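ok new one. same drill as before - structure tokens go in, u give me an amino acid for every spot. 307 of them this time. try not to just spam alanines like last time pls lmao
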């Protein structure tokens, strides 16, 4: 059973908030902002309430408020100040910190309000790449170092998925697709379950005016042959986070080429950490590996002009 982390070291607080441990100690001593407990060996331990308070203070501090002024506020005033600052700020860093705060508090309302303010100013691609992706990268490091619990990561991941699904429905209803355009088929390889990135890729491709077929997690290459009866102009897209592992990647590529590419006019684009070990010089011409989105968008998602 997953347990919610409720006790944090000063290093945990530094990693989550971005405020150096030395500065946290000064704030404690000078302004009495935090009151850690002490272990029998005199090591500071901070409660979940202390982390929430520090994130609130950090957000206000990063927005330009002096720490002496923040210390003068009543504790009951700070959460409302934080919400007002988060919703009015143009800084992605402020938004990311607000989302961290929503994660620590399991506060769906703050997440939704922060997103609402962002989407009024920026398009979804910008929000995902500059806010959500940055946040998830930071949370991945925090999770690995035990600074947050899996409950926190699952909470925020599923809220991001909700936003992607909503934005996907919006673009699906707002575009007409031309029958001669390529159809993008998005899937994850066998045993790969990390679908956040492939969900976003699906939304992104749709937003550029192209048709997609989204298949989701853990799809065997052999099963994709059924798609070939739908169209001869298929562009497969996959994202490899943990699978196929390094020992199986060559087999995956060879099998995909044999089962799909040699019997069709299709191509495959691959993203994700597991693709970094691929020797691209030995890849077939119709398989491409991308480290980021810019080249992929330039080559395959050129702006469409509708009559």
């Amino acid at each position: 059973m997953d347990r919610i982390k409720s006790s944090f070291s000063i290093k945990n607080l530094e990693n989550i908030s971005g405020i150096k441990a030395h500065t946290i100690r000064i704030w404690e001593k000078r302004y009495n902002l935090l009151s850690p407990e002490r272990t029998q060996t005199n090591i500071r331990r901070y409660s979940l309430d202390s982390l929430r308070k520090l994130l609130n203070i950090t957000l206000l501090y990063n927005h330009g408020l002096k720490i002496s002024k923040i210390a003068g506020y009543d504790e009951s005033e700070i959460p409302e100040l934080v919400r007002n600052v988060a919703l009015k700020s143009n800084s992605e860093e402020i938004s990311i910190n607000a989302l961290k705060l929503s994660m620590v508090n399991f506060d769906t309302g703050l997440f939704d309000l922060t997103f609402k303010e962002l989407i009024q100013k920026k398009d979804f691609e910008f929000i995902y790449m500059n806010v959500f992706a940055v946040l998830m990268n930071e949370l991945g490091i925090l999770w690995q170092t035990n600074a947050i619990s899996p409950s926190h990561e699952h909470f925020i991941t599923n809220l991001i998925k909700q936003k992607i699904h909503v934005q996907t429905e919006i673009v699906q209803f707002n575009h007409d697709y031309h029958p001669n355009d390529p159809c993008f088929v998005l899937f994850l390889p066998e045993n790969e379950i990390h679908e956040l990135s492939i969900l976003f890729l699906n939304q992104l491709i749709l937003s550029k005016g192209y048709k997609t077929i989204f298949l989701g997690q853990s799809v065997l290459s052999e099963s994709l042959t059924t798609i070939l009866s739908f169209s001869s102009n298929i562009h497969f897209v996959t994202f490899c986070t943990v699978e196929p592992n390094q020992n199986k990647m060559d087999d995956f590529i060879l099998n995909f080429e044999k089962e799909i590419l040699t019997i069709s006019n299709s191509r495959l684009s691959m993203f994700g950490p597991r693709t970094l070990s691929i020797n691209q010089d030995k890849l077939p011409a119709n398989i491409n590996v991308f480290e980021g989105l810019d080249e992929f968008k330039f080559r395959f998602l050129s702006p469409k002009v509708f009559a």
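The chain has two domains: 7-170, 176-300. and btw The mean pLDDT is 86.
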